[in-house]
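Summary of Year 1 activities. Much of the first year was spent building the evaluation harness for sequence design. The harness presents a backbone, in tokenized form, and records the residue chosen at every position. We chose the following record to illustrate the format because it has been used consistently in internal testing since the harness was completed.
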């Protein structure tokens, strides 16, 4: 379970977007070939292209769904569009492009791994610092996820419940406009 010192708790991801959970699958996100850590500061120019995502797993029969949401759309002080869905990939196999011989296999998302069902839309925050949250869910099987009809007001909790998904990993970055300054106000 998430603890008080967990970056997802400190950043408000646990609470605002997700319920407490125990991470059970490795999730690595790289932006411009740089692996991110929770709370890393990025600018919109750095997230113009899809991030590179690596998902751990050992069972060929296991599939995952990745979502990327803006927890603070359109602004952190008035997040009436929370959560804004920037990207969704379903049916990500656990061991595609695996490096066999290692103890943990990984899959790196590209056009060949998984189905991009909500095409990537790069974030363009206009006010404040926005948390861009990457959430990984385990599916019951292949082709079991229903694609949402719209991007605004997506709800990760409801989406997981409606599609019988298990939350297995999450990470986030902080993104603000190119000439933005200052820190998150709490």
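For this record, the design step produced the sequence shown next.
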């Amino acid at each position: 379970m998430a603890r008080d010192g967990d970056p997802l708790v400190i950043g408000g991801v646990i609470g605002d977007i997700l319920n407490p959970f125990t991470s059970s699958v490795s999730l690595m996100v790289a932006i411009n070939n740089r692996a991110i850590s929770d709370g890393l500061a990025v600018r919109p120019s750095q997230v113009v292209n899809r991030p590179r995502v690596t998902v751990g797993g050992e069972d060929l029969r296991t599939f995952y769904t990745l979502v990327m949401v803006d927890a603070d759309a359109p602004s952190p002080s008035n997040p009436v569009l929370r959560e804004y869905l920037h990207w969704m990939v379903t049916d990500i196999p656990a061991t595609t492009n695996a490096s066999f011989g290692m103890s943990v296999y990984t899959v790196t998302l590209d056009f060949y791994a998984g189905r991009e069902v909500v095409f990537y839309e790069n974030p363009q925050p206009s006010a404040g610092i926005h948390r861009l949250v990457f959430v990984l869910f385990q599916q019951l099987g292949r082709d079991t996820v229903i694609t949402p009809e719209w991007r605004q007001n997506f709800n990760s909790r409801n989406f997981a419940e409606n599609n019988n998904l298990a939350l297995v990993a999450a990470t986030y970055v902080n993104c603000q406009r190119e000439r933005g300054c200052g820190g998150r106000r709490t």
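The longest helix spans residues 156-162. Quantitative recovery figures across the full test set are reported in Table 2.
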